[in-house]
Specification:
By secondary structure, this protein is mainly alpha-helical. The protein contains eight helices and no strands. Helix 3 packs antiparallel against helix 4, helix 4 crosses helix 6 and helix 7 packs across helix 8. The radius of gyration is 22 Å and the shape is globular.
Length: 174
């Protein structure tokens, strides 16, 4: 692969590129090679492959709607956990945290209503995932929240569960 890169870089370098531009081009090629050789990417540049859910969606051709539903479900659960005072990963606190400020009575009541709505939506999503069976539910939770790739034996029911989750979350127009 390195020989091909040198040929490409050499062909591009023959053009009217400055030394700096040529170096930047060589670095971008080297970065792409590094990305493509990562085992979890399997030669693909898709950003979805950086997580277990994205790899599963691409490998089993579930569709980007399923990925979006799984990611939205994860964010919903983390928002609810954060609102209830349950510890969440740092990136969640940074994305959904915001400044700590005092709420008046109306804002607090409205926020409490949002938290109740989040909990009922989480319950609906959990029921949809559990309908595919306990192994599929556990695999979905481990994949979405812990980044664990599922075992091959559970992949078909897991795929059905995630498709149902996407339907439940309104990701398909029908």
């Amino acid at each position: 692969m390195g020989k091909i890169v040198r040929q490409v870089v050499g062909a591009v370098a023959e053009r009217d590129m400055s030394h700096l531009e040529r170096k930047q081009f060589e670095l971008s090629i080297a970065e792409k090679i590094t990305v493509l050789t990562q085992p979890h990417r399997r030669g693909r540049l898709s950003e979805m492959r950086e997580c277990a859910l994205g790899r599963f969606v691409e490998d089993y051709k579930c569709g980007v709607e399923v990925y979006n539903a799984g990611h939205e479900y994860m964010c919903l659960v983390y928002k609810w956990r954060m609102a209830c005072g349950i510890n969440v990963p740092r990136w969640v606190r940074q994305e959904f945290g915001g400044p700590e400020s005092q709420m008046d009575g109306d804002a607090l009541a409205k926020f409490a209503e949002h938290v109740r709505e989040w909990k009922s939506e989480i319950k609906r999503c959990e029921n949809v995932l559990k309908a595919a069976g306990l192994p599929a539910y556990r695999a979905a939770v481990a994949m979405i929240f812990d980044g664990m790739d599922p075992y091959p034996a559970v992949c078909e029911p897991l795929k059905r569960a995630l498709l149902q989750l996407a339907i439940e979350m309104g990701k398909f127009p029908y």
